[in-house]
Amino acid sequence: MSGAARVEVKGLREFQRDMRRASKDVAKEFTKTMVELGAPIAADARSRADRYGSAVSNKIRPRVKGASLFLESRARSKGIRPDFGALVMGQALIPAVEGHADEVVDGFSKAVDELWN
Q1: Distance between CA 40 and CA 110 in Å, rounded?
Q2: Burial per residue of 7-46, b for 16 or more beta-carbon CB atoms within 10 angstroms, e otherwise
Q3: What are the pLDDT digits (tens) for 51-74?
Q4: Domain ranges of the chain
């Protein structure tokens, strides 16, 4: 499995521009909401990555940059397996994102509606 799972949002660039112009409080609230949206996805990814040890699964976290939500794994392979990052991505991160794509889209829509209305 190559590539990454994506959820595309129409009008994302305009939204990102508006977020940059918004007050810091609105941006902080949006970031907090996006991290909360990513928490169940990260939990699912951690449970899928448990077979590689707790050193891997405990390092998976949701992150927000701008209007983008993504999962990050800071686990290191210690040189034993050069394809370790791709393995964790293919076996844990991508399936978790694909399994929760509808929830993210719905949650994103609700978050935008609550913040701008």
Answers
A1: 17
A2: eebeeeeebeeebeeeeeeebeebbebbeebbebbbebbb
A3: 887 778 788 889 888 778 888 888
A4: 12-111
